[in-house]
Amino acid sequence: MRLPLLSGWAGSTDMAWNRYWCCGIFLVGCLVGCHKPENPGSGSGSASPSASTRGPVKTVRLPVQVEADAKIRTAAATREVVVGSVDVPGDLSPDPNKVARIASPVAGRVEKVSFDEGTAVSKGSVLAVLRVPELGKVRSAYAATTAKAKAARAQADRQRSLFNEGLAIEQVALDAEAAAKALDAEATALREQLSAMDMTAGGSGAFLTLRAPFSGVVTARAAVVGQPVAADDVLGTITDLSEVWFIGRIYERDLPLVHLGARASVRLDAFPSDLFEGNVTHVGKQVDPATRTLLARIPLVNVKGLLGIGLFGGARVFAGDAKTKAASIVVLRTAITDLGDRRVVFVRKGPGEYEIRDVVLGDATHDRVEVRSGVTEGEPVVVEGGFTLRSVALKATFSEEE
Q: pLDDT tens digit string along 383-393?
């Protein structure tokens, strides 16, 4: 009879334990469901920077002290004309048509040198005197042949006159005419030989004078007294520096912005306070495989005489004409900030409050950029100290993504 009683007690015990488990699970569920997580932004109140976190970040708020420490500076968006430009590195080269290499047309020996590197010379100035033995022979032969040709011409004219009067036979007159023509031809050949030596037919002796073909500056000297020279040995170089070429190197991506006739401003490292104006007169058609650049030529007038061969600098080539373009909203380049994949500016709305504006940019110069949408004229845009605002905005963006 006890067994049924024991079995009944055991069954009642199991039922009691089931009730305890159900109650425990219910209580845990109530505790979890009723727990409210702490707002991470509410702990510090206004003492910490914050940003809106619903959708794309639109506003950044900074406490007064944080704003002061960030040294934020704003500048009003203005309306002006901005012409797109591209910066091109390069250096100065001479105009090849204004470079002369001084050389002797024949072999000889240097007797005198009258020029030094860096000195200015005028057209026709004596640069060097060479002793050329062959020149003396040619001049002597020319003088002798010229004299014989003159006498032969006179004899031929006399024989022709006698023949016309019936006092001489025709054959004698013809022979005299042929002799005169032969000597004339020989004299002409010798005169051309002297001309090839850059010598006039009226000179004398074995000395060859080398003169400057045009006015310029001596940019190289390789001649010394007593030096033997062969034909075409270069003794010096004269360069006309009244106009030089700035040879710029254009990257492929910038090629659409550079066109013939485009205005350019050149600034050299040696003279940072001087600006030299010119226009693009040539754009190369071959890309340098090593640098992936093309060459552009900008002639510059050397008004002050400052421009020297090889000086390095940069040119700003303008893609349009300021006279024909309408004014637009413009901000400083430092106002533009990359916020993830967004291009934005920070507009100050009040103490410690900055609105984030997505902008569409247009043409730009070295310090200003055109804003086609996102900012209106006169709005205060952050141009310094934007790093703090960007950091707060990025932190809010990452928190939202998590």
A: 999 999 999 98
